[in-house]
Amino acid sequence: EDIRVYEFAEACGKSPAEVIKVLFSLGMMVTKNDFLKQDELEILGEEFGIEVTVKDALEDVNYVESYEGEEVDTGSFITRPPVVTIMGHVDHGKTSLLDKIRSSKVASGEAGGITQHINSYTVVKNGQKITFVDTPGHEAFSAMRTRGANVTDIIIIVVAADDGVKAQTEEVISHAKASGCPIIVAMNKMDKESANPDMVKAQMAERNLTPIDWGGDIEFIGVSARTGEGVEDLLENILIQAELLDLKADPTAKAKATVIEASLEKGRGPVANVIVQNGTLRVGDNIVCDTTFGRVKAITNDMGEIVKELGLSETGTVLGLNDVPTTGSSLISMDTEKEVRDIANTRAEHARAKELSKSTKVSLEEMSGLIAEGKMKQLPVIIKADVGGSLEAIKGSLEKIANDEVKVKVVHAAVGGITESDIVLASASSGCIILGFNVRPTGAVKAKAKADGVEINTYSIIYDLLDDVKNALSGMMSAVI
Ligand code: GDP
After folding, report:
1. Are 171 and 278 in contact (CB under 8 A)?
2. SS3 28
3. Of the four, 286, 292, 383, 453, which is 20 to 30 A from 392 by CA?
4. Main site of residence (predicted)?
5. Residue 109's pLDDT is what?
6. Rounded distance, CA 176 to CA 99, Å?
7. Average pLDDT over residues 439-453
8. Span of 30-34, 150-154, 319-323 with lowest mean pLDDT
């Protein structure tokens, strides 16, 4: 709140020009002394890949994952239930285990109603709640994480004790480790005669998940989704881990939830299956989720019952959004309908502008066509070179290349490798290409360039670079670079 363009640029290590470019490209006219609005800050955060904490309307809903104790008012913070994700190789019993845990914890009268597998639920063990979430797979799990949806506190890796570590177990291990969540290994199918827990332990230890009884720090629990053996033990271990994590959140805050699944249902409209991460979600709340918004019309809990609210770490389905939100997006409650509509609309606009700017990106080759047709008056370029001498030489030569109607416009020239911020800058200047001399983009930068539709050309001979640009300008270039 109340931050000027140049202050923001300073705070995130960008030049004011870069900040202004991003906003200009979205049709937002600002100068360096202007104050940034909340939506502009959000957009800039997204563009620059940095986390912008907007203290204002969103202040109350910032999810406090682990409370440190200094700055925040502790008054309303309470311990929240852990959220657990189960992952494992196909057929190792992930679904069976989730169903067993659920049915073993549900009062018998209600259990009869549970025939179908559902993808999230809360159980009570020793008077404490635990929420389980079934993500469609470990890729989906990581995809949600890259979108900032860190719903999971603890990961259980299921390994069939008669089968051991398999290809997908390996993948799951990588995803689990990358998440930084504590891991518990559930060795399933212990009821089978061929079960060999020591084999599982050895294979996991080889992958740096060493059992506690072997001197490591990972809990291995033998279970059977068929007989229920070990399930209580597993739940107890989850509670121990949760206690170590000291998970806190504020039930009095405005709700922040994460969408774990969403669909359009006949007669009900958009339905979002959510898990509450902070605050309390209530019927009647004004909510925004991704580019969708609305008012909570109805909530159904994990038992399929109609309820008035969902508390911390609880899951259920929400009716009332005007469209189907993306999986992994945050659902947030706000005071007024205007707020949620404005935010959703701004996001939608931003998404459209991004799409548009992508589709107007052209390659050097296409550019020459446009220039030939007289549609392009200038060719914007970003030059990156290994040394200052080459950079000056290239810049100087490029600025001299011009014919009657067209010229090169150097948007940015600097010594150094091609970075993500160059891509951001290029995407913000329509048709801009990046020319690298003796520098190459890293894989991550290449991927971003591809995603944003930015062309990068690299050279090690100055003449080649100049020739390409000359050809483009004269509209004669036909060869693909
Ligand atoms: P998922 O692909 O990991 O979800 O695995 P499923 O839960 O679908 O289980 C795969 C198969 O293993 C099914 O035929 C289950 O009945 C069986 N299964 C799962 N858990 C156990 C167990 O603890 N013991 C035995 N004997 N079979 C199990």
Report:
1. no
2. coil
3. 453
4. cytoplasm
5. 45
6. 22
7. 84
8. 30-34
Q: How many angstroms separate the CA atoms of 413 and 416, rounded? A: 10
Q: What is the DSSP letter of 60?
A: G
363: helix, strand or coil: coil
Residue 57 pLDDT exceeds 60: no
Distance from residue 229's CA to the centre of ligand 1 (Å): 14
| 297: three-class secondary structure by DSSP | strand
Residue 473 confidence (pLDDT):
77
In angstroms and rounded to an integer, the radius of gyration of the C-alpha atoms of the chain is 27
Q: Are strands 256-265 and 269-278 parallel, antiparallel or unpaired?
A: antiparallel
Distance, in Å, from the CA atom of 398 to the CA atom of 459, rounded to the nearest integer, reads: 14
Would you mind telling me the total number of residues written for the chain in this entry? 481
Q: Is the CB of 230 under 6 A from ligand 1?
A: no
Question: Are the C-beta atoms of residues 113 and 46 closer than 8 Å to each other?
Answer: no
Query: Any idea what DSSP says for residue 223?
Result: -
Q: Is 304 annotated as a binding residue?
A: no
Determine if ligand 1 sits within 6 Å of the CB of residue 226. Answer: yes
Tokens of 414: 């600097």
The model's pLDDT over 246-260, given as tens digits with 9 standing for 90+, comes to 999 999 999 999 998
Query: Is any atom of ligand 1 closer than 6 Å to the C-beta of 91?
Result: yes
Q: Is 290 annotated as a binding residue?
A: no
Angle between helices 364-372 and 462-473 (to 10 degrees): 40
Yes or no: say if 340 and 271 are a contact pair by the CB < 8 Å rule.
no
Q: How far is CA 27 from the centre of its chain?
A: 26
The answer on pLDDT for 68 being more than 60 is no
277: Cβ below 6 Å to ligand 1?
no
Angle at 290 between CA 285 and CA 291, to 5 degrees: 95
For the chain, what is the mean pLDDT?
A: 82
User: Chain-centre distance of CA 177, in angstroms?
Assistant: 17
φ, ψ at 89 (rounded to 5°): -65, 150
Protein residue whose Cα sits closest to atom 17 of ligand 1: 93
192 labelled binding-site residue: no
Indicate whether 211 pLDDT > 90: yes
Count of C-beta atoms within a 10 Å radius of residue 174:
12
User: What angle is formed at CA 64 by the lines to CA 340 and CA 218, rounded to 5 degrees?
Assistant: 130
Our answer on whether the CB atom of 90 is closer than 6 Å to any ligand 1 atom is yes
CB 319 within 8 A of CB 297: yes
Residue 62 confidence (pLDDT):
34
